[in-house]
Amino acid sequence: MSTHSIPTPATGSPASDRAAKKQFLHDAAEHVRDTGHRAFVRKALGGYYTNRDAQKARYRDWEQARDAASLAKWSAVNRLDELLPRFVEKFEANGGVVHWARDADEARGIVLDLLRKAKAKAVIKSKCMTSEEIHLNAAMEQDGYGVVESDLGEFIQQLRGEPPYHFVFPCMHVRRDEISDLFGKHLGTPPTDSPEELTMIARRHMRRLYVDADVGITGANFLVAETGQISITENEGNARLTVALPRVHIAISGIEKVVEHLDDLAVLLPMLATAGAGQPMTCYNTLYSGPRRDGEVDGPEEMHIVLLDNQRSAILADPEQRDSLHCIRCGACLNVCPIFKNVGGFTYGTTYQGPIGSVITPHLRGLADWNHLSGASSLCGACTDACPVRIDIHHHLLHNRRNAARTAPNRWEKLGHKMFVTVASRPWLFATGGAMFRRTLGLLKALRPPLMRDWLATRDLPQAPARSFRDQWSRR
Amino acid sequence: MTTTAASRRDGSARETILARLREALRVPAPLPHLKSHASAPQPAMTNGTNGPTGTHGLPQLTVLPEQAARPWLPDGGDTPAERLAILVENLGKLRALVHRVPDLTAAADLVGTLARERDWRQVAWHDHPLVTPLRAGIPCGTYEVRPGSFDKSALEACDAGITACEALVAQTGSILVSSATCGGRALSILPHVHVVVATCDQILSTLGDALHFAKSQNGGRMPSMLSFITGPSRTGDIERILVLGAHGPKELVVILVG
Asked: Are A364 and A308 in contact (CB under 8 A)?
């Protein structure tokens, strides 16, 4: 077993987004050097590749399934102004209450209001990335509400005081002995190196909490316009329990989660599971359409949904990148990304890590401060190939680079390009420059001028050939 | 904040967001890059005309009706025998336990055997033509979940819960339960073991069939919860190693009658 230990990232948003790039470069360099961590992450993902390929092979045509999933999301996202109100109308007719939040602050205010009205004493929560996006837990704790994350990975991260490392596998970077120590410290349990025993510790700890909680908070994977149902996908059963036992259910969802037909889920649910976790279906896929009905045994008395914009409408307004709202948060693009696997999840400093996070974060939090994520890519396109809804992820990274260059041109970059054009378009100048470069290469290596120092820190310059290619060609 | 202020705030947030969406969608987006061959689902107009008729003059995309069968997803079987075979195979891979019995008397005996083997002290059930007769075989205490007298602590103390289901899905090995006909929301998730009793004619081919079935059963008014259960509860959160029984049932027992 490796002995690496991952430094704790700054939780929440950095004090200033200006610091984001500096933080990224620093953390990336640190993680890349940590071969133990890289090996650990690679090993954790090894089983995923095997299972995903086995499950994909069960599809009679995976590419056609991707087409259908992509079309279902395309047609919903491009008619969001029509389908979102349709969902809301149905949801309200089913007895649910809808709340609209323009931004994170408004969403937090709505949830805190609901907790106050419910006189909440204990809150249980199932995995919900939109709540991470709006930093809900911190706001709830500040207002004195105890909240427990029920998803095992999120629970471990909550105890560690860290955000999720990966938005589907929140604690994939944590070793079992670290979890054993963590549980020992917080729950007083004896040490064990068995993942099963560790899981059972969390299971036993959580059961009373489900029964005692008066409010359950969840996310939503899909909002079905046709029926007004919300769909929640999970493996552990913690979301099912969170929505079955407390008196009030609050779901928080991005506005882009709408699909038109219930039938669309016949494609999207299996593909979410296969692409994201290499499963045929996630263990529990549950549709909720309101509070307990007359004649039903149990369930909450109230069901609320918070519909969160928080810059999603700004992505919608960009037709070129609108398809990034197709994202079903399966995590497939992270799992295949060479950058993610080498720099790790925390380096991004974002709620949504990996390629899709690099695409949408500049929209959510400002291109000027987050454009460096567009460079966190080898442009290999593995993310685009892995995406079950065909988001053109790696091209969008290029689009963001282009947009950043347009809105805030870098003078030095422009000067450099101008110089290159001047030299490359004049053969005599190119030959002279080349000859000079060949002769001074050894000197550059020795002097390590400031502009080349970072580059040379992890690389070496090649030996300069005695004669140029043009020279060799003309004498052949 | 008063309710009026809250609703006023929501009201204006609603208007602002919807106005943003309308404004954002004024410029149409390019169609997605579809890569598969000619038989791929092609964009079609839902109203059968050639003209763009959606909001803002956008074409309303849908999948052609002949694609509803979705011959590219995993197979769910065409005949009852195929469906049964695929279902049993998938449930096995998911590590659910499948038992086939000829009738409800045999099912009751089986539940009795399970209870003795696993040393159950309390078993929860709900009133249903497939579940109620099984009580005869249970050698220990029972707890009936019933509207109006539900006690979550009593259910939490149960070792197993027995429910009916709405349908079974061969394609994915899933069991569809609803809050209306399967003992509510908690019975199939809170006890450590979930026993499902179903008949073989409840097996449907695909997930699409099951969603269609749920809609047709409930005539537009869905039960407050519909859940597709695909194997016993599981997690891979610790080093991506599979562990069964994270928060939901550790064991899923499917009893197929007939």
From this structure: no
* Structure-model confidence comparison of residues A451 and B51, the more confident one: A451
Q: Best mutation site among A1, A49, A64 for testing chain B: the one with the most B CBs within 10 Å?
A: A64
Three-point CA angle A407, A408, A414, nearest 5°: 115
Consecutive H or E run containing A354: helix A354-365
Task: State chain B's mean pLDDT as an integer.
Answer: 87
pLDDT greater than 90 at residue B47: no
Q: Is A462 on the interface with B (CB under 8 A)?
A: no
Contact flag A65-B73 (C-beta cutoff 8 Å): yes
Nearest to A366, CA basis, from A45, A20, A101, A130: A20
Q: What band does B9 get if pLDDT is binned at 50, 70 and 90?
A: low
How many CB atoms within 10 Å of residue B81?
10
CB pairs A-B closer than 8 Å: 341
Q: Looking at beta carbons, which residues of chain B come within 8 Å of A77?
A: 29
Through-space distance between the first and last CA atoms of chain B, rounded to whole angstroms: 59
pLDDT exceeds cutoff 50 at A316: yes
Q: Around Cβ A161, how many Cβ atoms within 10 Å?
A: 8
Query: DSSP character for A201?
Result: H
**What's the confidence (pLDDT) of residue A15?**
47
Q: Which residues from chain B sit within 8 angstroms of residue A214, using beta carbons?
A: none
**Residue bearing the bigger pLDDT, B60 or A124:** A124
Question: What ipTM was predicted for this assembly?
Answer: 0.91
Give the Cα separation of A105 and A243 in Å (integer). Answer: 25
Query: CB–CB of B114/B152 below 8 Å?
Result: no
- Cβ distance of B238 and A243 shorter than 8 Å: no
**pTM to 2 decimals?**
0.91
